[in-house]
Design goal:
Oligomer: single chain
Largest sheet: 7 strands, antiparallel
Radius of gyration: 21 Å
Number of helices: 2
Shape: elongated
Strand order of the largest sheet: 7-6-5-4-10-9-8
Distance between the termini: 19 Å
Helix content: 25-40%
Number of strands: 10
Strand content: 25-35%
Amino acid sequence: MFTLVTELNHVKNISRLPKSTRKHAVGIYFNDDTSRTFACESELEADEWCKVLQMECLGTQMNDISLGEPDLLASGVEREQSERFNVYLMPSPNLDVHGECTLQITFENICLWDVQNPRVKLVSWPLSALRRYGRDSTWFTFEAGRMCDTGEGLFIFQTRDGEAIYQKVHSAALTIAEQHDRLLQSVKNSVVCLRVLPVILQCSVLMT
């Protein structure tokens, strides 16, 4: 079996590929205008590889979010939870929808449903793309990042369930953060192994 090895020298950029191009994929772009891509088993794994490679090859910081709740860096298959909250979405320049609707928090998304037709999902925001969120007795609000379908923006919901919504979002956020930490450590260990492997191979060649 032959293994193709690519030296990560003179790297210009590292980024995720659009899902429409290739699922779970990362692109590595070099200064000589060549590129390499590889695919992972999940979006979460691809995100982590992208971030680690950016840090190793480009010196990019792992976390550029300094405000709000903990940085949330995970996404995956949506797993529905049954509870929905009645909310009133205030008008936003980033979204055509506003008014009465129901809000649902899954393990990975905040989902907004049509109040007249509960089977119609109006929009969803990945928890991994939220920058911060908050509440008081009559409001729940969050700031979406650029990776959301709605783009960047602040979304405000008038509701009597602000505290309950906040607690569900925060619980899901902490779970995602813990999963991210475990996967990040695994990826870092893999990067260390990749660094050690060429040394082992070189020693083996010299010995033979």
